[in-house]
Amino acid sequence: MTRTTFLLLAALCSPGVFAATVEAFEADPLTLLDAHGKSQGTLALKDAPKLPLPVLESNPNLELVQVELGGRKVWLDTMDLRLSEGKVVTTPCERLSNSQKADTRNASTIGFGSGCNKP
Amino acid sequence: MIRPMTHPRGHGIGLVFGAMACLLLAGCGTLKGADAAFMNLVGPSTQSQVQGRYLDTADVRQYYKLDPQRVTAQRLSYDGMAIPAGEIRQHNVVVIPPLQAYLQGIVTRLGKGWPGELPALQVKVIDSYGFGPSADPFGNLFVPLGMLDNVQSEDEIAAMLGHEMSHVLLHHHDRRAAFQQQNAMLTNVATSIVLAAKVADTRVDHRSDTLKFVSKDPQRTQKTVSNTVLYTALMNSFSENIWSTAWGRTQEDQADLLGADLMIKAGYAPRAASHSLQRLSDFQGKQQSLLASFATARKNALQESVQNLQVDRLVKEVGVTLNQGLTTGISAAGQYFQRSHMSPLDRDTELRQYLQRQYDGQRRARVNADGWQQLRASTAVAPSLQAYKDAYAATVALEQRQVREARLFSERALASPVRDQPGIRRAQFSVEMAEGKRREALQALQAIKDWSLASPELYDLMIAHHLLNKDPHAALAMIAQAERTLGSEELFITEKLAANQQLKDDAQVKELARKCTQYPTRKDGCKKLLPA
Q1: Interatomic CA distance for residues B359 and B452, integer angstroms
Q2: What distance, in Å, lies between the first and last C-alpha atoms of chain A?
Q3: Does B127 touch chain A (CB under 8 A)?
């Protein structure tokens, strides 16, 4: 393995690299946090920068992302944000009749949501 | 204030139907919550209208006390129940005892947060790779394997089960009954109006020798009849397509709110509710926001029509809205009124705002993924879950005509502790059939140990096999088991008739033929079996 390939792989596998962006703010005011999730102050939504905002780093365990606000790097709780990459369902479904809309298959049940539309 | 609808050509009938609608909205017990559906249709979101914590509101408090009649209706088994064929469970039930106990434990923990009397609630894992759980009015909470395959924490499971429990706690299943009742009532009223108009318009002609009835004003009577038919159709169509689905969406919003309250009271992290809604959004694909610009443009006109209860105008406005949506190429236009759930991301946003308002201290709590990950990976659970995934993979392989791969997956599933459960044997049956091994396919079904777990489809296969082999006793035994398990006589009544014909039991055939006429979807099938 060449040095370049190794560095490329290492960069891709690094937990700090995060290609997502912040698509929307879901709280007002935003709570600014440190890397451990401790509050460092707040920011009113009217003073927030334009979206989308690149995510610089993420901490999946604490569900925090780091962004730059007004030239300052801060951490935000994902509960306050809509990210471009949310939680996903990995199971494909379109080929299976089992995943049709519950509403149409069984009239007596009320489901959590309607049927699968994944590619 | 709601005013009766008016119509220049049918003022009287309009008044009657307007009064009917007001009555339905205001008085009828089974229609509780219908008025809130109007607000879902044209007003602010359900979540934003809630003052305080939803669990403590008067809307929810009315459900704290269990109706004694409802307690007896809370049946955990379908035994003995006359459930219509279209309403019974469709999937095989999965039994993995430690998993079952774990999920039931979550429901128990959530139930402790309910301040009222708790109905019986029972979790059933089902062999489906859909994502969303569901609940029936008997307190069964159906958890699909596809959900368990994707959620990452107990908190997330609690969010989804809390939502389903909420449907049961808030009596949401009554909506269907309410609409059936309303359709019947409107039809009856319409019939009465038509009859009354005819009677009022008729006089007896004494001039001839024979008694003769003559219409005094045939044109006017015809107009009354036409308007009555029109209003009935409009009201019922409005109810089915707009009101009922809007009401359904309101119920989903209410279940989101109560589910969040219950999970927080039980000590779970509410952010998990957001996780599950994000997954649901991914599962369903992106949907346009319900209040997209085209809908907003029509909102005021619709709102005015709804407030004045001018049904004819409302239907016209709906038509304009749909046409505008279609002509401007917005494919979501038709879905605006017919979607049973809000977009998951809209629900997520509304829920987060509710959490910020009511639970600012708790909303940042962290999920604990450890417990669920450990159970899922344990030797008591993992091999069984894997077996079902293998059976699923076998079915997928068959659909891609990869019979060899399907055989390998099926054999792996058959080496598991759940080898004799219906879902695993169903996959084996398909593989054997794909290889042309009919006898082995039958043996696969005969290896099922507990038929109380089986889906209607599996019963159907076995009953058809026995009838083809002229073994009516075996067919009747299987039908009896299906009736006990699924609680529906309707489902296999045609097959029961055929089996009794094979036995030449004329008395039973006659009795079943009589019963069969009570089931609209079955009577033609029964008729075909009977001699002319």
Answers
A1: 43
A2: 36
A3: yes
Residue B30, beta-bridge partner list: none
Q: Chain A interface, mutation test: which of B129, B153, B251, B343, most A Cβ atoms within 10 Å?
A: B129
- This model of the complex carries an ipTM of 0.78
Rounded CA gap, B64 and B59, in Å?
Answer: 10
In a domain, A37, yes or no: yes
What domain range is A79 assigned to?
Answer: 17-83
Domain annotation covers residue A118: no
CA distances, B10 to each of A78, B20, B194, B224, B490 (Å): 57, 15, 13, 7, 43
* pLDDT higher at B466 or B31: B466
Indicate whether A76 belongs to any domain: yes
pLDDT at A14: 45
Chain B hits for A62, Cβ within 8 Å: 366
> Does the beta carbon of A38 lie under 8 angstroms from any beta carbon of chain B?
no
A104 band by pLDDT with thresholds 50, 70 and 90: very low
Percent of chain B with pLDDT over 90: 49
Instruction: For residue B457, give the chain A residue with the closest CA.
Output: A98
Task: Provide the chain B residues 262-281 that lie in CB contact (below 8 A) with chain A.
Answer: 271, 274-276, 278-281
What pLDDT, on the 0 to 100 scale, is given for residue B9?
Answer: 41
Give this prediction's pTM. Answer: 0.75
